Amino acid sequence: MHKLILVTGGTGYIGSHTVVELMNEGFDVVIIDNLSNSEKSVLDGIAKITGRRPYFEQFDLCDKERVHNFFKIYRKVGAIIHFAAYKAVGESVEKPLMYYQNNLISLMNLLQGMVDFNVHNLVFSSSCTVYGEPDELPVTEKAPIKLSTSPYGNTKQIAEEIISDTIKAHELLKAIALRYFNPIGAHPSALIGELPIGVPNNLVPFITQTASGIRDELKVFGNDYNTHDGTAIRDYINVVDLAKAHVVSVKRMLAEKTKSNFEIFNLGTGKGSSVLEIVNSFKKATGRDLNYKIVGRREGDTEAVYADTKLANEELGWKAEISLEDTLKSAWEWEKNIRNLK
Ligand code: UD1
Hints:
seven-stranded parallel beta sheet, two-stranded parallel ribbon
């Protein structure tokens, strides 16, 4: 059994937590990351937690020659987990070509490397954004793919199609696409976590930065949704739980237990929380007060999305285990650590 796993984007938020879980399970890891949205010091955090350092290669996956040379050197890659991508929804609307170029060329270079060098297993980082505003809740993997509201979301849809077509053409290739709901929280050691650059777009980083005094107040985008308290509902999943699903997926592929050459799983908790519920859970979990104000809806937001997790529960034998409160607490511990707060 090959034990070396390539993790692209391995110094990023979900990538770094996945590297830790892989190493905890005895895998060797090589990271490719261009550090466009992460820092090399993340490797120190990983080493502190696991007692080992992953191999690290800093380059851009859009550089086809570098990708080719990588596979020439690392001959024993057993599986690839592909996280490296741009992920800011708003930015993707302003710079669509940058998103299509980066997210799709890198994927195609990687797939070409897999074909040329006989690497057969790919785990792909997809998103619940492919479901848009779902017609039925909880949303299953069979729900129709909706026209994307952003180039970012579209890159995830197109990426799944590129993978699917490539796999059809090369019978030895296999892939698992994991559709994440809303990943939040940080490693319980508070040694790795999310490092948003500038003003965070996502809810939980904005909350922790407000609690630490960097932001004056949280703006709650809309309280006129058709939900129990009027605020929008999402399925918030702990990043360590999420990371573990990647390890399970890799093991499933290496053990040749997949039921088809391209499998797709939702990764969520199955439980929806409103924005105000998150605010209140955060206060309860951390004992911190939080200034917030209700403002208008954010363009492109959906009303309610949460996962049907039955397929992942049954097929992967995986389920989210960490409570929302512990997760929000971990996000706060991480925030305190990077801001040097007591
Ligand atoms: C978005 C993307 C998703 C992407 C994810 C992680 C869409 C539709 N969703 O999810 O594809 O994977 O980010 O990057 O493109 N909120 C506030 N105030 C804030 C920030 C957020 O009220 O300051 C609310 C939002 O309106 C939403 C909820 O909190 O209802 C979660 O927002 P966010 O964390 O940005 O995630 P999504 O928009 O669900």
